[in-house]
Input
Amino acid sequence: MQTEIIISGFGGQGALFAGQLLAYAAMDSGFEVTWIPSYGPEMRGGTANCTVIIADEEIGAPTVLNPRAVLALNLPSLDKYEPLVISGGVLVANASLINRPITRTDISAVMIPANEIAEEIGDKRLLNMVMLGALLGKLPVLPVEVIEKALQAHIPERHKRLLPSNYAALRRGMEFAAQVPSPIHS
Amino acid sequence: MAKELLKGNVAMAEAAIRSGLQAYFGYPITPQTELLEWMAERMPLLGRTFLQAESEVAAINMVYGAACTGARVMSSSSSPGVSLMMEGISYIAGTELPVVLVDVVRGGPGLGNIAPSQGDYYQITKGGGHGDYFPIVLAPSNVQESIDLMVLAFDLAEKYRSIVVVMSDGNVGQIMEPAELPPFQPLKTVYPDWAVRGAENRAKRTLSSIYIKPDEEEVTNFRLLERWHEIEANELRYKEYFLDDAEIVVVGFGSSGRVAFSAVRAARAQGIPVGLLRPITLRPFPYAPLAELSKSAKAFLVVEMNAGQMLDDVQLAVAGRTPVEFYGRMGGMVPYQGEILAEIMRIASESIPLEGDPRHRWAQRVNYGRNGHK
Output
């Protein structure tokens, strides 16, 4: 049994780090996990995405065509991955940078104004944590406390003063997503 | 030691350092650069040598010189950079020096791109440089194997006075997985009796790849061959999955091997009697186990990220006893599980001919890529 999550956005939005954090948390919880970036000849402002697979058995292929969940941090990511999420999967999209609704009706869809929520907390760079929190609100692949512990354990000492705002961003994202109704499956 | 979340390239660099690496010479190239960067940071801190050369040609010749002292030395690069090193590699082989080289293979030919590929199989396993020599080639498919095979590479290089190439690819280099690093080995203090380290109080030694007289070169060629036969007898490594009752045998290494593993597991869940043999040493190649499997299997499927290079070796092993099919992606494309699963299901339901060329059949099936691959 495995769960595949693609996190995709512009370079600099923190897509790769959000994926690494999820991978650390999965490892710390004793799961098998892979994190793999798309590594094109890209720079800040280009596209950046990673695939995280969390499993209870050996992981073969580290990339998948049809993931269980997608975090789309910008419009090009939504356009690319919305058709690919498996039926019954989860799609979280950053409403702050996306000017169209999610059209799929067979998935759990969350449009969340991640930039605005991050700015309310005090730092627009927290948008990746807001998005990750929203994922956990719809797909409880790991408890939020495990993510918070992983954040504390694996970020450099000089960034530790930012932990409370990161925790707040995760929680705000999670609460927002939990209030969005999921589609009813037969 | 506890597991850490490590990137393949970084894990290989740290494993080499812990194996007692004394000097690293290299030149940056994606998708291998994190390896060199890790060396740049760590080696000087440990009082060891890191040197970024002016080119790959310079780097491999620095490795050549340093290896003559009997020190543990290595370089790393990616496909176009490794091509530049081929002259030096042949000289190292001709001088019978232990050297470790990492090739994090990318899309080609030519400048190609930086995406994962296995297009260097022929070049790396069949020599690449000129003359009769036999490199040991190890192919990791995950981060833990990248670590374990780096440690093994130095031991094999010194045991057989041989070049050992760790042939990784962009995906295995860039992936992060939980893995355990080895303990630190002390740096060597005793050097082999062929090493040139200054001839104080002893007779002069010479290391060279020049044998002007053909009969003396032939003696050397036979010495290399004899050593190779010893390697073939002792150092074969491969991994088997679900092969006990397999009617279809999938063969894949490195990145394509782990995608094949996913596909084989999915096919097994649907009741298809399929297994996987994943070569870990690409040279020596597991001819004998594949020959044995060909006596009971109904068909083979070779999966690679190239146009069918290891395919030749599988066909040599199978020797026409059993039909062989091929599925490949090229140019930096990586197959998805579903593509390989579809091939397994097709082979399970079709009769595959013994005659004909599997590479030709594959190219026809995918219409030379004009069908619009995902």
Summary: The mean pLDDT of chain B is 97. Chain B touches chain A at residues 3, 5, 30-31, 114, 170-171, 174-178, 258-263, 265, 334, 336-338, 374 (CB under 8 Å).
